[in-house]
């Protein structure tokens, strides 16, 4: 490992510890972030869930979809932290230190991934409490968690880039709305086959839908395949979509950050 890479890793871990220390001072924000997806699961599972086109128990179909949805939503805290650091001049102090410029963003993203992993543990536990069962084995479960966290990492860098385009903390909520179509125009709550043909085709190509479908398959949920190319290559898309998003928005976010912090 080169000296430069080692410096970036050390600086990034230092910034990660800084963000994790904020959890101790703002525990309510962390708790709300964990409870909100649970509320969505209960709401769609028992208050609004129709289960159109679903084979078997709806909860078996819904929980993997909600796990994927949790990885897409809840980016506001990270987006706000980035814009607040820029607005309060914190970045100016960091620039005076011998620190890699990308370490601030990487540290923030790693801290977010810790919370995302914790959210997955909570959601899986709630799913089991509601009667959901995993029939795919331990290796399949680890693979599913890996795909879910990969999706989160991709959405995280998309969110960070959008936050810096917004520039101000008060605009973050408005920018977050741009992410909503990815969450709601998906197969999280219903099968594409139960939708109009044009909508179902678009839903199958949604990055969230690919991850949700792959997780359902790993969990042993009865197949909901439509015979389309996207439906038959969910694993490929579940990896390809996040990789493409990361390859696109990671360098854009870092470049934007360097420009705004000078």
Automatic annotation (TrEMBL):
Domain of life: Bacteria
Bilayer topology: Multi-pass membrane protein
TM helices/strands, residue ranges: 27-47, 59-82, 103-132, 138-159, 235-254
ABC transmembrane type-2 domain ranges (all copies): 28-260
Keywords recorded for this protein, A-Z: Antibiotic resistance, Cell membrane, Membrane, Transmembrane, Transmembrane helix, Transport
UniProt subcellular location: Cell membrane; Membrane
InterPro entries: ABC2_TM, ABC2_TM_bact-type, ABC_2_transport, Nod_factor_ABC_transporter
Main localization of the protein described in the UniProt heading: membrane
Pfam (any one): ABC2_membrane
Family (UniProt): Belongs to the ABC-2 integral membrane protein family.
Name of protein: Transport permease protein
């Amino acid at each position: 490992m080169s000296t430069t890479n080692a410096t970036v890793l050390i600086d990034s871990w230092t910034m990660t510890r800084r963000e994790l220390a904020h959890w101790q001072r703002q525990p309510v924000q962390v708790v709300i972030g964990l409870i909100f997806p649970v509320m969505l699961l209960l709401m769609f599972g028992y208050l609004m869930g129709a289960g159109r086109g679903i084979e078997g128990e709806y909860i078996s179909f819904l929980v993997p979809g909600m796990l994927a949805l949790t990885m897409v939503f809840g980016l506001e805290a990270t987006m706000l932290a980035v814009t607040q650091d820029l607005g309060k001049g914190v970045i100016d102090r960091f620039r005076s230190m011998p620190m890699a410029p990308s370490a601030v963003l990487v540290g923030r993203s790693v801290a977010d991934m810790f919370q995302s992993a914790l959210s997955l543990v909570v959601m899986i536990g709630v799913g089991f409490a509601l009667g959901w069962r995993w029939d795919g084995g331990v290796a399949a479960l680890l693979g599913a968690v890996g795909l879910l966290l990969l999706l989160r990492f991709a959405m995280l860098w998309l969110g960070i880039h959008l936050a810096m385009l917004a520039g101000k903390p008060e605009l973050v909520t408005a920018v977050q709305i741009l992410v909503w179509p990815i969450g709601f125009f998906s197969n999280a709550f219903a099968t594409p086959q139960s939708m109009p043909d044009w909508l179902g085709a678009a839903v199958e190509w949604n990055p969230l839908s690919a991850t949700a479908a792959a997780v359902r398959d790993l969990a042993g949920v009865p197949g909901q395949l439509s015979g389309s190319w996207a439906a038959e290559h969910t694993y490929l898309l579940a990896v390809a979509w996040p990789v493409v998003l990361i390859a696109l928005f990671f360098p854009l976010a870092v470049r934007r950050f360097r420009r705004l912090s000078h």
